[in-house]
Design goal:
Elements (H helix, E strand, L loop, with lengths): L6 H17 L12 H10 L2 E4 L2 E4 H15 L3 H9 L2 H13 L6 E5 L5 H9 L7 E6 L2 H13 L6 E5 L12 E7 L8 H11 E12 L5 H23 L2 H13 L3 H10 L3 E8 L4 E7 L2
Parallel strand pairs: 3-4, 3-6, 4-5, 6-7
Antiparallel strand pairs: 1-2, 7-9, 8-9
Helix pairs in contact: 1-2, 4-9, 9-10
Length: 293
C-alpha cells in the first residue's frame, strides 16, 4: 500500500533534493534548479485529496465530512427515505440476506452510526444468541442518533457503540467474523487504509461486505440519475435537512468513488479475496463481498 507523505517527509525530501543539486552537481547546469518547483509540486500534490469535486488537504477532509454529518444527523434517516424513495431499505435488506447472520457471530459495522445495519442483523438472530455487535463511527452526532434509535427499540446491551476512525479501528486483530460498511467508505480520506483495516480485524475466513453508491451501468438511466443527483437532491437537502451543500457533496462524492471494477481491484490489493459484486438498481448502488482467506 502506498504511504502518504507527511509535511515532515516532504521537508526532508526537499532539502535532500536541494543538497543533490547544489553540492553534488546533480544535473549540474544553470537551469537545473528550475526542476525543483515541478518536483515539489508533485510531492505536495500527493498530500491532497477530494471532498466531492473540491481538492483539499488530506488532513482537512475528515473535518469537512464530519461537518456534513453533524449538520444533517437529525434528518439523516428521513432524507435517506425521501431521496431514495425508500429503496435504500431494500438495498440494506439485500445486504443482510447476503451476509446471512449466524447465531453467536461477532459483527463489526463501520460508519453505521444510526444503526440501520446492526438493527437488521439483530432482527435475523435468535434473542438467546445474538452474538456480539459493535458499531464504529467517527461522527459522535450520528452515534448519538443510533443510541437513541436503539433505546426506542428496547435494545440496551446488544450493541456496543464506539467513536472511532475507519482508517485506524479501535478493534483487535483477527477479532470479528464479519465486517460491514454501508454508504460510508467513499467518505474516508484513504480508502486503501480502510480496506487494510478491514482485513486486519477480520478472522481468517471472515466476511467483508460493503454497500455503497456506485456507477450506473445503463447509459439512459445514467443521464436521468445525473439530473436527479445534481438538481433534485440538493434541493431536497435544502428543504428537508436545511443543508443544500451536504447533498451537493453527496452527488459529487458518488461520482468520485471508484467504479465497481476499480473498487474490486482495491479490495484485492488489500489482501482480501474471492471478491464478488452485485449491482443494485442498475448500478446506482453495489454490494461488494470478499473474504479474509
Amino acid at each position: 500500500m502506498q504511504r502518504t507523505l507527511s509535511i515532515a517527509d516532504t521537508s526532508k525530501i526537499y532539502f535532500f533534493v536541494v543538497y543533490l543539486f547544489c553540492y553534488h552537481g546533480f544535473l549540474a547546469s544553470e537551469g537545473s534548479l528550475s526542476y525543483l518547483p515541478l518536483i515539489m509540486g508533485k510531492l505536495i500534490d500527493e498530500q491532497t485529496t477530494y471532498f466531492g469535486y473540491r481538492k483539499v488537504g488530506e488532513t482537512e477532509k475528515a473535518s469537512l465530512v464530519k461537518e456534513v454529518f453533524d449538520n444533517v444527523s437529525n434528518k439523516y434517516d428521513l432524507m435517506n427515505d425521501v431521496m431514495s424513495m425508500g429503496v435504500h431499505r431494500l438495498w440494506k435488506n439485500v445486504m443482510i440476506d447476503w451476509l446471512a447472520p449466524k447465531p453467536g457471530m461477532t459483527l463489526l459495522d463501520v460508519g453505521g452510526g444510526t444503526g440501520d445495519i446492526p438493527f437488521r442483523v439483530l432482527a435475523r438472530l435468535p434473542k438467546a444468541h445474538p452474538g456480539s455487535i459493535t458499531v464504529v463511527d467517527i461522527n459522535s452526532a450520528m452515534l448519538r442518533r443510533g443510541r437513541e434509535h436503539a433505546i426506542n427499540r428496547g435494545i440496551i446491551n446488544s450493541i456496543k457503540w464506539i467513536n472511532g476512525d475507519a482508517e485506524n479501528l479501535p478493534v483487535n486483530d483477527m477479532s470479528v467474523d464479519a465486517y460491514t460498511i454501508a454508504f460510508c467508505i467513499r467518505n474516508v480520506t484513504h480508502i486503501a487504509r480502510a480496506l487494510s483495516e478491514a482485513r486486519r480485524v477480520l478472522k481468517p475466513g471472515g466476511r467483508f461486505l460493503c454497500l455503497e453508491f456506485s456507477h450506473v451501468t445503463a447509459p439512459i438511466l445514467s443521464k436521468i440519475y445525473d439530473a436527479y443527483s445534481f438538481k433534485v437532491l440538493p434541493m431536497l437537502g435544502a428543504q428537508i435537512a436545511g443543508d443544500r451543500t451536504a447533498y451537493q457533496y453527496l452527488a459529487e462524492s458518488i461520482r468520485q468513488f471508484p467504479d465497481q471494477s476499480r473498487f474490486t481491484t482495491m479490495i484485492l490489493d488489500s489482501g482480501l479475496g474471492n471478491v464478488k459484486v452485485r449491482n443494485l438498481s442498475g448500478g446506482i448502488a453495489a454490494l461488494h463481498s470478499a473474504w479474509r482467506i
